[in-house]
Amino acid sequence: MLFPVVLIVLVGGAVSQITTGAPHTHKPAPDLESALGRRAHFSMILDLLRTTGLLTQLKALPQVTLFAPTNAALSSIPNDEYQDLKADVPRLTSLLKYHVTTDQAFHTTGRANDVVFNSLDNNLPIRINIYKIVHTIAAEGVNITDKDIRVANGFVQGIDNVMQPPNGDVVDIINNMDNTKMLAGLINSAGLESAIRADLNITVFAPTNDAFAKLDPQVLTYLQNNPKALTEVLLYHVVKKTTLYSIGMRHAMTFQTADKHHDNLMLIEGNNDDIYLNHAKVDDRDISATNGVIHTIEDVLVPTTVLVAIEDQGLLVG
Ligand SMILES: *[C@@H]1O[C@H](CO)[C@@H](O)[C@H](O)[C@H]1NC(C)=O
Ligand SMILES: *[C@@H]1O[C@H](CO)[C@@H](O)[C@H](O)[C@H]1NC(C)=O
């Protein structure tokens, strides 16, 4: 009987060591500046942090996590844009602060999906996703490629792209984008705005104006005159309570939509990195919102029950 008890104690001890951070046998972690300085692939972010004076500020914080774009990530910005950004210190500072949180010294072990941190000063969400099937942890849909670099007051998480701060919630963004005006109007007339805003981790596949233009005008009129059918069609484009950035997508993945029948959609990988949602081609990917993510698609998807009702009217969809 003694043996199992000893085992449990040992396992318990190991777990508490992982969750409380560095065991005391570790060497003290270097400060942020030295940690970045000894890694050649972070020389550009180090330079930007110095340029803005943020480096001194971050080193002095009691706890911090820096999401640090690698040199490869920063080099993917066209050079003239990069030089403009570097010369515009207020804009650069604001972008860099979006890559910092002081909520918690965040390390990637054992974190739940859809955890959201607030960025430094500007209080915008930095969303973490764990996509187990592709063995990936992402921040705002950007891969964390260089995980958990310990520094004296927290962690650096190396990321392979620059994160873009969200410009409002899902409804705000759909209302403001030129190519989703049609969808914005329909969401409004179906009375779905508040439900979409209320879900704090939502994925919306947003048909563009061109997608709606492909529908027979009589089909659109039918939907506008039948609020229940319209609601079903709109919610068929929504995945509730989880955010799916393209980095987490995989061929033949299916997921349940928010319509009444919980219909499934399937992702298909096509040629040249194209992705389809059922037959609809995904257009703009990974438009981050404060409460989720939007991808635009080039066709309107119609769930079976509504399809049948429309065909009963002697109409054809697409
Ligand atoms: C959804 O988001 C909220 C707020 O960010 C978070 O607290 C919650 O845990 C998330 N829900 C799920 C199911 O992950
Ligand atoms: C993200 O980065 C990790 C570490 O480099 C890599 O193993 C993983 O495959 C990447 N994920 C995707 C989806 O590219």
Automatic annotation (TrEMBL):
It comes from the Eukaryota. Residues 29-163, 167-301 form the FAS1 domain. Keywords: Signal. Residues 1-16 form the signal peptide. Pfam families: Fasciclin. The keyword RNA-binding does not apply. This is Transforming growth factor-beta-induced protein ig-h3-like.
